[in-house]
Amino acid sequence: MKPEHDDKIGSGDLDPAGAELVSRLLEIIAAEGLVKPELLEPHATVDDIGFTIDDLTLIGNAIEREYDCDMMPDEAMQRCKTVRELVELMGRRIQRAASGEGR
Prior knowledge:
The protein is mainly α. It is built from five helices and no strands. Residues 1-11 have low confidence and may be disordered.
């Protein structure tokens, strides 16, 4: 049986405003990655969904436009194996940029 917190992306790493952020990130990922939102389960792998580096670039560009922070695919993003890891990485970067750390 999985721990309860595993059922929500970002439950352990994002602040209370994180739920709204996670929801918006998933919308952007689905729209820019041209996938159905229901495929973006926390434990779904980036490879199984079929995201390429080009898809990650498009997703990153859309997030950069909306949140004014650097999301270009890099080694950390490429190491993300699951949707959960990808969303948490992006969420941390957005929060760092909002707090002034990412500039």
